[in-house]
Amino acid sequence: MIKFALLGSGSSGNATLVTDGTNAFLIDNGLSLKRLEERLGAVGLCPSDLKGVFVTHEHGDHVQGLGVLSRKHRIPVFLTEGTRQSLPATLGHVEKLETVEAGDTVKIGGLSITSFSIAHDAADPVSYTVTNGSTKLGFATDFGHTSHLVRTRLANSNALVIESNYCPHLLRTGSYPPKIQQRISSRSGHLSNHDAAKLLSELAHDALQLVVLVHLSRENNLPALASRLAREALAGHPAEVVVAPPDGSSRLFEVQG
């Protein structure tokens, strides 16, 4: 059994809680300590319960809460060397940095957390899978295109947390200047609704129970649109599809392989 909750899923701060009921950790922490305490408290936890933070990349909305959290609670922070070298100076000193390479596996209790490379405009970005031997959570956000490696690493997941960032039409007709539009839609930018849906169609299998769509743009997307395309891509598959709120917490999901 693996439980997880999106504590934040947008430009104001990203953080995902993962736990097996005994051990708990975060993927990213772009939340202030106060906000993190509030959102962990809603599921009966506090920051001192965390056994680590696994960083995807160095952008502020994913790391801006690392410094204070690490200094106050001395929680290990796992990240690639490229990400470590590119952390914003505004974080101050970050305690207990643990450098890993893409493809490495770190064990926390009975949970195995494995990183894999993704394409994003960052120094050395990764995403993660989490397994306990019988249940698998696949997590992939902030990437511009789906590679064979991404599909391979996410295959056979019981739950998927997938970026569905933007609608191409809304991006083209919106207020963003052309340079920003190009960055978002590039192969090292973000995943569109259509690309996310295609990925889901390729990853669907009998044991998939849950899909959580994350990191939706408030300006260039609509939750109902992202959800509809994902459901259509699953073509009648019974997996639940949920859109994570960008500025609040999701419920605590539970999956079992």
Would you give an account of this structure?
The protein has 257 residues and is of the alpha/beta class. The protein has one domain (2-245): 4-Layer Sandwich (Metallo-beta-lactamase, Chain A). It is built from nine helices and 14 strands. It has helices at 33-41, 60-63, 66-73, 81-85, 148-154, 168-173, 178-185, 193-203, 223-234; strands at 2-10, 13-19, 24-29, 50-54, 77-79, 97-99, 105-108, 111-117, 126-131, 136-140, 159-163, 210-214, 240-243, 253-255. The strands form two sheets. It has a seven-stranded mixed beta sheet with strand order 6-5-4-3-2-1-14. A seven-stranded mixed beta sheet has the order 7-8-9-10-11-12-13. The longest helix is centred in the C-terminal third of the chain and has 12 residues, at 223-234. The mean pLDDT is 96.
Cα separation of the termini: 7 Å
Oligomeric category: single chain
DSSP helix fraction: 25-40%
Do you know the CATH topology?
Metallo-beta-lactamase, Chain A
How many domains comprise the coordinates? 1
Mean pLDDT score, rounded? 96
In total, how many beta strands?
Answer: 14
Rg from alpha-carbon coordinates: 17 Å
Question: Do you know the CATH architecture?
Answer: 4-Layer Sandwich
Give the SSE order as H and E letters: EEEHEHHEHEEEEEHEHHHEHEE
Shape: globular
What top-tier CATH class fits best? Alpha Beta
Largest sheet entry: 7 strands, mixed
Task: Flag low-confidence runs.
Answer: none
- Count of helical stretches: 9
CATH superfamily: Ribonuclease Z/Hydroxyacylglutathione hydrolase-like
